[in-house]
Design a protein that fits this description.
- This protein has 351 residues and is mostly beta strands.
- Helices cover 6% and strands 64% of the residues.
- The chain has a 12-stranded antiparallel β-barrel with strand order 11-12-13-14-15-16-17-18-19-20-21-22.
- The chain is elongated, with a radius of gyration of 28 Å.
- 18% of the residues are buried.
- The N terminus is likely disordered.
Length: 351
């Protein structure tokens, strides 16, 4: 019996350490001198994911800008900023540089870590989409009797050549059973990408505002657009999650009024969409669009929103935003500027 126990102990002394270290596929050296050993899973959107060597606990999530060097024991896929993809075993080089042994080459290729945009990236899906919905409201009773509700939603789908963007907003308020605010706003943008950055767009705007003498405002425009900043354009981790797109075009603008005269005319159109995830879970965003009249650019309409969104848990988030619109030639009795400050709870989904 003793001999059997000794044999088991000897076998475990060989097998257990081997099983522990067999999974150690990478060593990640950080700029603060720390070294993390584990299974290198992937690096996407500026975040390196490494599973612990002992297979316990949550994986390490490391900002790519904090990595000083990296070495792997097995081939991995490195995607560079110019779109090139290289597969090989990484060896430690000079600070901020790795040496890649890629078959069938017999030499080691020096690669700057700042030029690496992804490692073992997941398989690209033919259509990527994301959606969000946010709700805010208030109900009071007693000395004050009022109710408010606002609903905001968005949807975006992107394939290699096409992108669909839908935004919608609805606001309602009443005081002592008397409606004090009711308006809706929606846009649909269809983008066709001619290159990686340049696209052509077709956009439709629809808006209703009960207390601005507006049955329906519509605008149909088309023109070129450009992706000025995409995720990963900046190596700095604080700017790597920024996007900026803009377009300019022309089209038709119509306002159906309840009391005042209806208007319709040709317009120019500009639009900007900017989003910046400053730190994980905290995002700043801004959107705007403007419609100057073709024959008289001093007559224009502008609609903007800007705010901050904080992800609480998974897709659940809270946001604070300010919506502002300006009509240089409003209906009689209406003000030119209109501002709404909103606090809402919502959910984001991304495939």
């Amino acid at each position: 019996m003793i001999h059997r126990l000794c044999l088991v102990f000897v076998l475990m002394s060989w097998v257990v350490p081997y099983s522990i270290h067999a999974g150690v596929l990478a060593s990640v050296i950080l700029k603060d001198g720390s070294i993390i050993h584990g299974d290198l899973v992937e690096m996407v959107e500026g975040t390196l994911k490494v599973e612990a060597a002992f297979g316990a606990g949550e994986p390490f999530l490391i900002t790519w800008g904090e990595v000083e060097n990296i070495a792997t024991s097995q081939p991995v896929v490195f995607v560079l900023g110019n779109g090139a993809s290289l597969t090989g075993i990484a060896e430690k080089g000079e600070p901020g540089e790795l040496l890649l042994s890629a078959d069938p080459l017999t030499i080691r290729i020096p690669i700057q870590l700042a030029s690496v945009t992804a490692i073992n990236p997941p398989e690209e899906k033919p259509v990527k989409y994301k959606a969000n919905i946010n709700f805010g409201g208030k109900i009071s009773s007693g000395n004050t009797k009022d109710a408010q509700a606002n609903l905001l939603g968005g949807f975006q789908a992107r394939s290699e050549r096409l992108r669909l963007i839908v935004d919608a907003r609805y606001f309602y308020a009443e005081e002592r059973k008397r409606v004090t605010d009711r308006n809706a706003f929606g846009t649909i943008d269809l983008n066709f990408f001619m290159t990686q950055r340049w696209y052509a767009f077709l956009a439709v705007l629809m808006e209703q505002d009960t207390f601005d003498d507006l049955n329906l405002r519509t605008a149909v425009t088309a023109g070129p657009g450009y992706e000025f900043i995409e995720k990963g354009d900046f190596a700095n981790p604080y700017f790597s999650q920024m996007t900026l797109q803009g377009d300019i075009g022309a089209g038709f603008f119509n306002e159906d009024r309840k009391i005042d005269d209806d208007t319709n005319h040709g317009v120019y159109r500009w639009a900007l969409r900017w989003e910046w995830e400053v730190i994980p879970k905290l995002t700043i965003f801004h959107r705007q669009m403007g419609f100057p009249e073709l024959g008289d650019v001093s007559n224009y309409y502008v609609n903007t929103l800007q705010g901050i969104r904080f992800n609480i848990w998974k897709g659940l988030n809270v946001s604070v935003q300010v919506n502002y619109k300006y009509d240089n030639d409003p209906a009689e009795g209406s003000k030119k500027g209109d501002t709404k400050a909103l606090f809402s709870l919502g959910y984001n989904y991304e495939n």
